[in-house]
Amino acid sequence: MLVTAYLAIIFLLALCVGLELTARRLTPPQSTPTAQANPAFRRFQSIFLRAYLLALWADWLQGPYLYKLYRHYSFLESQIAILYVCGLASCVLFAPVSGWLPQVLGRRQTCLLFCLSYSACCLTKLSRDYFVLIVGRILGGLSTSLLATTFEAWYVHRHVDVHDFPKEWIPSTFNKAATWNHGLAVGAGLVANLLAEWLHLGPVAPFLLAVPCLACCGWVVLTDWGKEETEGGPEGDKKTLLGSSVGGVTHLSAKARFTRSCQEGLRCLLSDRRVILLGGVQALFESVLYVFVFLWTPVLDPHGPPLGIVFSCLMAASMAGSLLYRLATSSRYRLQPGHVLCLAVLMAFFSFFMLTFSTAAGQPRPHESFVAFLLLELACGLYFPAFSFLQGRVIPEEKRASVLAWFRVPLHLLACLGLLALHGEVSGAGGGEAGSGTRHMFGGCAVMMLAALMAVVSLFTLGRNDTDLKLDETRGEGEMY
User: Fold this and answer.
1) What is the DSSP letter of 74?
2) H helix runs in 124-225, sequence order
3) What pTM value is reported for the model?
4) How many CA atoms lie within 13 Å of 207's alpha carbon, on the beta-carbon side?
5) What is the average per-residue pLDDT within 8-20?
6) In sequence order, which residues have a C-beta less than 8 Å from that of residue 184 and are 6 or more positions away?
7) d(CA 13, CA 414)
8) Four-CA torsion 347, 348, 351, 355, nearest 10 degrees
């Protein structure tokens, strides 16, 4: 497995470079030349990306060695499953809070709260106390919820309401962030492996490195964002809420707006069958990814691979998938995002089907499991941009945040139930480690992917002649912005 991991990362990085060069040749940048020529916009974009990419980097550093750290502290797989469930449950509980806090504290202050809470989450990894680690997972759930919403909310608010830049320029910033995000994920695995294994600093080292990264992110938010707000105009959100009111009126106003937003999101979800089917696909597909995040380490780690390099391989496979999506939807190949989504779900089903055989108790086949994991990540690289395109066409922009919040509830609940089922199987077997329970879990994931595939087919049977679900006739998606 050691040699396999290093050969895989070399091959995957070469593949990504080749796909990127091909994509640039077939889909030359059409993105907002006016935006790139505008020095005020480029400066604003740079200020945002400095903080946002630091936050993403700190988040990715914690991916390769989380399970390994808990095993290093001698916890059983069933105990580790409960830690993961606590993290997922906190995501469910804090998802509404992450939308409410910016209205009360202000967007920039909420980003600072993210830096503080995630730093505290990382520092809890120094403790071997189970209760302290549970607290860390809860803080991690809060931080993940804030990362998913608050930075983007600050940027969009400043972009549209303060600087009055055209809305058409927004995708150029997030496309650039997505491109960097893939590279950061691959690099995080390499750096984590360097610290934990090559320098023999142990699995806690990447978490400690994340703390100064978060401190730097907080400093940029405190100084550069504060200066940007001073020069560009007040942030507006907290000021608007306060007005001339005092005391608890501020909180009531925020609560009223939040309640109204949730009601409108639920109404939109229930009134359009396309939205329901899309939410079902997301809940089924992404919930099993949480199970995968938990299980890939115990499946491969007993066979001695460098976990940081394996993590980089997985992220490189995901990057290759996103580049393949860009090529597939270009004007040359004209594959529709719905077809790509169907292919991604089918690939994910096949990968879990492989895993039910490669993880048989007493007869593990780690090389086959590794290939299946890479195939799953490749499917993820295809899935996320295709799903993003479809949700942008089906869900109205003003209701998207609240609808997606409703989507995340069944998503996290399914993931929690899956991990609790695994915990029950392991505990029922007397605390034994990965064996039949792991195989049964992968089998259940395959069944869920089959259900997701049926939902995708239903969605496009329903909207066979729906132009909202298709690319423009004259341009591929890679050329839309």
Assistant:
1) T
2) 130-157, 170-193, 205-220
3) 0.86
4) 23
5) 93
6) 53, 56, 57, 60
7) 33
8) -160
